[in-house]
Amino acid sequence: MPSETDAIRNSMHSVTPTKHLPDTPATAVKWAASASRRLRQLVPGLALSGVLAFASIHMSQIDWLQSNGISALTLAIVLGMVVGNTIYPGIGAMTGAGVTFSKANLLRLGIVLYGMRLTFQDIGNVGWTGVAIDATVLCSTFALAYFLGTRVFGLDRRTAMLIGAGSSICGAAAVMAAEPVVRGRAEQVMVAVATVVVFGTLSMFLYPVLYHLITHHQLVELSPNAYGVYAGSTIHEVAQVVAAGRAIGEEAADTAVIAKMVRVMMLAPFLIFLSGWLSRASANDADAVCGEGQCNATRHGGMVIPWFALGFVAVAGLNSLAPLPVAVVKQVIDIDTVLLAMAMAGLGLTTHVSAIRKAGIKPLALGAVLFAWLVCGGFAINAGITALLI
User: Fold this and answer.
1) Which residues does 78 contact at the CB level (< 8 Å), separation at least 6?
2) Which positions ≥6 away from 65 have C-beta within 8 Å?
3) If you write DSSP's letter for every residue of 190-228 in order, what string do you get?
4) What burial class does residue 354 get, using C-beta atoms within 10 Å of its C-beta: 0-12 exposed, 13-18 middle, 19+ buried?
5) Contact 143/347 with Cβ under 8 angstroms?
6) What is the CA radius of gyration of the chain?
C-alpha cells in the first residue's frame, strides 16, 4: 500500500508538467500584439524625425555651410524648431511617442556609437600635456558655469549644468548626453544648446583672427601645433574646431581635431562623476536634479550610472584594440550621425520658442562669460601647463 509521501510525490509529478504549458502560446501572442502596437505608435514620430535628420545631413554638405562649421546636428535642431513651432502641434498626438523615443532612446544609442570616432591612441598623439590641458579646461569651465549660473545669474542648476557641459566638452552633443543624467526639460536643453551654438560659432571665426594678430605682432610664440591644441581644447563643437583649424593650415587642423577628440573622450568619465555627485544631493532638496525613480540609468550602490557613457567607452576601446575596416567604421559613423540628428530633430520638435523667450537673457550672459573664459582663461591654461610639462 503506497505511503502518504508517495501519494504526494505522485500528485506533484502529475500536476507539474502541465502547469505552465497552456499559458506559453497566449503569453507569446500577447507580447507580439503589445510589440506591434508599440511599433505602430512609434513609426509616425520616427518617420518625422528621420525626414528632418536626412534633410539636415544633406543640407550640411553644402559648401558654404561646411566652410562655416555648421553641422548636421545644428541644422537638425533648427529644422526641428521650425516644424515644432508651426505644423507639429497639429500632429503631435500622432507623432509624439516616436519623437520622444528619438530624443531619448536614439540619443543614448548615438552617444554609444560616438565612441567609434575615437581611439585611445589619440591620447598619445597629443601627449599628456594635451590631456592635462583638456582636463583642466573641462573642470574649470564646468565649475565656473555651475557657480556663476546658480549664484550670480540666478539660473536653475539644471540649465547651468547643461550650459556648462556644452561649453566645457563638445557643444550640443554634450548637452544632449548630459540631459538624461540631470533630467533637464526640453526647453532647458534647448536653451543650453542654443547658447553653446551661438558662442561656438563665434569662436570659429574669432580664433583664426587671434592667431594672425598674435603671430603678426609677435605677442607670444604660438606655433600652428600649439594653436591646434588651444583651439581643440576650448572651442565648443567638433565641426567648429575643424573650421578654425583649417583656417590656419593642415598641421593646425590635425592637431586641433586630435585635441578635441581627447576632450570628447572625457565625456564618459564626466557623466559618471556628475551622476555620482547628483546622487549624493540631499533628498530634501526641492530642486533635486535626479529624482527617485526618474533616472533612466542603472542604479548601483545608490549611484546613478549612465549606461550609455560606459557603452561609449567600450566602443572606443573596441575601436582602439581591434582596428576595424575603414569602410565599416565609416558606415557606423554615418549611422551614428543619423541617430544623433534624429535626436536633435526630436528636441527641436518639442521646444517652443516661447519657452526660450521666457528664459531671458541670463543663459546668454552665462554663455558669454564662459566664452570669454575659454578664450582668455583657456589660453592661459594652455600656456601655463605647456610651460610646466614641456
Assistant:
1) 56, 348
2) 59, 75
3) HHHHHHHHHHHHHHHHHHHHHHHHHHHHTSS---HHHHH
4) exposed
5) no
6) 25
**Measured distance CA(209)–CA(204) in Å, rounded:** 10
Chain-centre distance of CA 172, in angstroms? 6
Cell 557613457, residue?
309
Amino acid present at 342: M
Per-residue pLDDT of the chain (390 residues; tens, 9 = 90+): 444 445 444 544 444 444 444 456 777 777 777 777 878 889 999 999 999 999 999 998 898 887 766 778 878 888 988 998 899 889 988 998 999 898 878 888 887 888 888 777 777 777 889 999 999 999 999 999 999 999 999 999 999 999 999 999 988 888 888 888 888 887 888 888 888 888 887 888 899 999 989 988 888 888 999 999 999 999 988 778 877 887 888 788 888 888 888 888 898 899 889 888 888 764 445 444 444 445 444 444 444 556 777 888 888 888 888 778 889 989 999 999 999 899 888 878 887 777 667 768 999 999 999 999 999 999 999 999 999 986
Q: Hunting for cell 554638405 — which residue is that?
A: 61
How far is residue 172's CA from residue 149's CA, in Å, rounded to a whole number? 18
131 touches 269 (CB < 8 A): no
**240 Cβ neighbours under 8 A, 6+ residues apart:** 69, 171, 200, 201, 203, 204
Amino acid at 244: A
Query: How far is the C-alpha of 122 from the C-alpha of 162, rounded, in Å?
Result: 26
Q: Are 381 and 136 in contact (CB under 8 A)?
A: yes
HEC sequence for 251-315: HHHHHHHHHHHHHHHCHHHHHHHHHHHHHCCCCCCCCCCCCCCCCCCEEECCEEECHHHHHHHHH
How far is Cα of residue 231 from the mean position of the Cα atoms in its chain? 20
DSSP annotation of 183 reads T
Nearest of 285, 273, 224 to residue 253 by alpha carbon: 224
Partnered with residue 303 across adjacent β-strands are 300
